[in-house]
Amino acid sequence: MPAAVGKHTDEVTEAMFHNHHHRHDHSGRKHIFGTVKVGERGQIVIPKEAREIFDIKPGDTLMVLGDEGRGLAVVKADKFRRIAEEMLRMFEVEPEEPPEE
To answer: Given Cys at both, which of 30, 44, 49, 53 links 25, Cβ 3.0 to 4.6 Å?
Structure first.
């Protein structure tokens, strides 16, 4: 890769990931918080802005979900639990009998 192209790519990458305050969508719902490094024990630090927006506090339990084609997602376990409970409620409703022919 020519040095000029590599330099430009590095500048774009730097702008996208390290100047993340400018990478929010206009609805305020999608964010790029930057990059993190995985430590020797597999740990990462969730960026402060992400912790603030998603109300992640020390001691909170997070669930790590994965899709081999799309990557990882981290969600607060209590939020995921509420979604699972809503899904389970569908079993509380008696199924409708099929119409007789």
So the answer is: 30
Residue 75: name the closest of 97, 50, 39 by CA.
50
Give the total residue count for the chain. Answer: 101
Q: How far apart are CA 36 and CA 87, in angstroms?
A: 33
Q: How confident is the model at residue 27 (pLDDT cuts 50, 70, 90)?
A: low
Evaluate whether 60 touches 75 at the Cβ level (below 8 Å): no
Angle, CA 60 vertex, CA 81 and CA 64 arms, to 5°:
60
The pLDDT tens digits for 53-92 are 999 999 999 999 899 999 998 989 988 888 888 888 888 7
Q: Tokens standing for 89?
A: 């409620």
Give the integer Cα–Cα distance in Å for 15 and 23.
9
